[in-house]
Every structure is written in structure tokens, then in C-alpha cells.
Write a structure and sequence with these properties.
alpha/beta, 7-stranded mixed beta sheet, 12 helices, 17 strands, binds nicotinamide-adenine-dinucleotide, binds ligand AHE, binds zinc ion, S-(hydroxymethyl)glutathione dehydrogenase (NAD+) activity
């Protein structure tokens, strides 16, 4: 198949909010600096639903969604040296070129090399898509488009991983789990003894809890409007549960009273701007730090009284938990193989690829953390 167009199945989002359609898609061969990957397992993240539902200002249609996956390299384009056919890989929605201003800064895991092209749904080299249906181009998504049996990604956006690691599990290391762990370890740098609040107990929030437990937090307060979330959350380290619906007063007030003045660290893992405000305002005066992880819809803005920051609270945010993808995703896979981090526990459902639309429904039901599609 090397150098040839591959026809395979992909789930195409033709329009926002309409069921995905499994189509025969033509996938062009990888060009210079590109890699064609046979995607074997792909999970659904809340962000796919967010873009699918039309709330993402960068959302383009028709497109092939998906960004939490694992597979095997099928072929590589000219000049690609770090991976070769047969390598086990995780496509990464954040690149790591190691040459741009961002990569060299040592201050961020964001990379400047191809971000503009991936935001425009095309490949960096010729600003064209590698996907088409009957000659009509279909946009890429997040530079990954993993809801396809084959996808073309940039070589700077691919992490080569241990071939012994189970792909049906480590696909989760492409987004949600590292995001939560890294928010705690890299963005907040939670210290032993810290009091932590986590808003939203989906995969990202539970991974933040797992990270906080590993960092030695003394209290991990989980906040969710769905009380069913508590039992499971305990197994990820949550020590106390608060449902905002059980209180008349603002949730920040409830947390402040529970913690003698506020928490040391809080994490917003929902994507709701009023919760982001509450997460900041429940932080302790003088030092409390709040990390925004959730992705909010187009047009939404955050606000608070500047006095909250003048009096020492810190507001920050993180993408992919601050991890450098090509360098650190393989390291996270090793940590999983050594049983130092959970991954299996987040896979609550699995479905054949053809039932992808059901996985969207599952994510809304509340029981599901991650549904892994067998491609
Ligand atoms: P999820 O839908 O599985 O989890 C969200 C949780 O929040 C659910 O348990 C839900 O009951 C709870 N919730 C909803 N509204 C609430 C409210 N008002 N108060 C308290 N709890 C509420 O989602 P996920 O896959 O864990 O993703 C969480 C967020 O993180 C999403 O916005 C996603 O887009 C974003 N995300 C960001 C990054 C990043 O790099 N920054 C990476 C992955 C995901
Ligand atoms: N396109 C959206 C922003 C989406 C967003 O914030 N994405 C997160 C990853 S979510 C993964 O589930 C992110 O890391 N962003 C960094 C980046 O470079 O995209 C919008 O609002 O425009
Ligand atoms: Zn995601």
C-alpha cells in the first residue's frame, strides 16, 4: 500500500450535531514529513463532542473527528526518520518539533510549527487535506482525525511507544488521562499535604484526582452535579464529595467553609465559565491557584473581581497537562506498564467502530468515562 491511496472506513461529520456517517474514504499517501497510521483503537473525548456539536470556533465541516487513539505506522513520507512502518504509535494533537520558539523556550508544551495548519483542518506542507470522499476533500481535526481506519499525521505529532503496551488501553494516553495528571503535576505542581478541589469528575477530573493523590494531597474534594460520580471517584483518590445542587449558597462559599478559608489548588475539568469562576474563588487568599482545564464554547468569557488576584490567588490553564508529547507520551506509557498510573480503569465501555454514534450517547449518560472503539 506504500505510496498508494488507501480506501478505508472513516466516520465523517458532515454537519454539526448530525450523526456521523461511516463512509468509504480515500486516504492519500503521506507527503514529506508525514506519517500514515493504521488506527486500531480510538476513544471518544468530551472535546470531540464539543466540536461536533458546533460550539468550537475552530470547528470545520465536513471533517473526521477523533484525537485519543493508538495504532501502527503503515508508511512514512520523505524525510521521516523517527518512525518507520510497523512502529506502535500514539497520534498527538499537540506537536513537538523541538525547533520552534515555543519548543525551545522550556516554558511550554505548545509547539508553533504546524498549529495554524491543524487549526485550518489541513496538512502543513501543501495546506491540503489527505482525506476525500468521491473526490470531495474532508477536513482533518486537531491534526489527528482518528475516527478513520487510516489517518495521516505530521511526524512532529507522533509518539513512538513500547510495542508491548496494549493499544486498546494506551490510546487513552493521547488525551484525557495525561491532561488530568499533568494539570496537577506540571501546571499546579501540587505539594504533599495540599488541599485540592476538583470540579467535574469525568476522565480528566478523575485523572487530576489520581495525580493529586500521587502528589500527596491531604484532601481531595470532588465536585460534580451528578452524585453517582462519587463512589467511583473514591477509587481515584477523591476523599470528599460535594454536589452543588445540595446547597443554596454559591459553591465557592461551601468549599471555603469546608476548608478553613479555601483550597490550595483547584481544577476546572468541565468547560463551564461560571464553574471556572467558582474554582478560582474557592482558592485560599494569598496563594491558592486555580487551573482551567475544561474547554468552553465559542463566545464564552471568564470573569471575577480583580481583587481575587490582587489578594494572591493565581489563575492559569493547561493544554495536555503541560506534557511534551513526543518526549513524554512514551514515558507515560512506561509508567502505565510499571503500574504507576491507571489507564484500564478509565475504559468503561468498548464498541465496534461501526457503532460510533452510540458512544456519543454513552458519554452523555453519565456512567461512561471512556468508550474505546475497535477500529
Ligand atoms: P466529561 O464530560 O466526561 O466530564 C465532565 C464532568 O463534569 C461530568 O462528570 C459532569 O457530570 C460534570 N459537570 C458538568 N457540569 C457540571 C457543573 N456545573 N458542576 C459540576 N460538575 C459538572 O468530560 P472529560 O472528557 O473529562 O473532559 C472534561 C473537560 O476537559 C471538557 O471540557 C474537555 O473538552 C476538556 N479537556 C481539556 C483538555 C486540555 O488539554 N485542556 C484535554 C481534554 C479534555
Ligand atoms: N478549538 C477550541 C479550543 C480547543 C482547546 O482548547 N483544545 C485543547 C485540547 S482539548 C483536548 O481534549 C488544547 O489543548 N488546546 C491547545 C491548542 O493548541 O489547541 C477553540 O476554542 O478555538
Ligand atoms: Zn481530548
Amino acid at each position: 500500500t506504500q505510496g498508494q491511496v488507501i480506501t478505508c472506513k472513516a466516520a465523517v461529520a458532515w454537519e454539526p450535531n448530525k450523526p456521523l456517517v461511516i463512509e468509504d474514504v480515500q486516504v492519500a499517501p503521506p507527503q514529506a514529513g508525514e506519517v500514515r497510521v493504521k488506527i486500531l483503537f480510538s476513544a471518544l473525548c468530551h472535546t470531540d463532542i464539543y466540536t461536533w456539536s458546533g460550539q468550537d470556533p475552530e470547528g470545520l465541516f465536513p471533517c473526521i473527528l477523533g484525537h485519543e487513539a493508538a495504532g501502527i505506522v503503515e508508511s512514512v513520507g520523505e524525510g521521516v526518520i523517527e518512525v518507520q512502518p510497523g512502529d506502535h504509535v500514539i497520534p498527538c494533537y499537540l506537536a513537538e518539533c523541538r525547533e520552534c520558539k515555543f519548543c525551545k523556550s522550556g516554558k511550554t508544551n505548545l509547539c508553533g510549527k504546524i498549529r495554524e495548519a491543524t487549526g485550518a483542518g489541513v496538512m502543513f506542507g501543501d495546506r491540503k487535506s489527505r482525506f476525500s470522499v468521491n473526490g470531495k476533500p474532508i477536513y482533518h481535526f486537531m491534526g489527528t482525525s482518528t475516527f478513520s481506519q487510516y489517518s495521516v499525521v505530521h511526524d512532529v505529532s507522533i509518539a513512538k511507544v513500547d510495542p508491548k503496551a496494549p493499544l486498546e488501553k494506551i490510546c487513552l494516553l493521547g488525551c484525557g488521562v495525561p491532561t488530568g495528571l499533568g494539570a496537577v503535576w506540571n501546571a499546579a505542581k501540587v505539594e504533599p499535604g495540599s488541599v485540592v478541589a476538583i470540579f467535574g469528575l469525568g476522565t480528566v477530573g478523575l485523572a487530576a484526582s489520581e495525580g493529586a493523590k500521587a502528589a500527596g494531597a491531604s484532601r481531595i474534594i470532588g465536585i460534580d452535579i451528578d452524585s453517582k460520580k462519587y463512589e467511583r471517584a473514591k477509587t481515584f483518590g477523591v476523599t470528599e464529595f460535594v454536589n452543588p445542587k445540595d446547597y443554596e449558597k454559591p459553591i465557592q462559599q461551601v468549599i471555603i467553609e469546608l476548608t478553613d478559608g479555601g483550597v490550595d489548588y483547584s481544577f476546572e475539568c468541565i468547560g463551564n465559565v461560571s464553574v471556572m469562576r467558582a474554582a478560582l474563588e474557592c482558592c485560599h487568599k494569598g496563594w491558592g491557584t486555580s487551573v482551567i482545564v475544561g474547554v468552553a464554547p465559542a463566545g464564552k468569557e471568564i470573569s471575577t473581581r480583580p481583587f481575587q488576584l490582587v489578594t494572591g490567588r493565581v489563575w492559569k490553564g493547561t493544554a495536555f497537562g503541560g506534557f511534551k508529547t513526543r518526549t513524554q507520551v512514551p514515558w507515560l506509557v512506561e509508567k502505565y506498564m510499571k503500574k504507576e498510573i491507571k489507564v484500564d480503569e478509565y475504559v468503561t465501555h468498548s464498541l465496534p467502530f461501526g457503532e460510533i454514534n452510540n458512544s456519543f450517547d454513552l458519554m452523555h449518560e453519565g456512567n461512561c468515562l471512556r468508550c474505546v472503539l475497535d477500529m
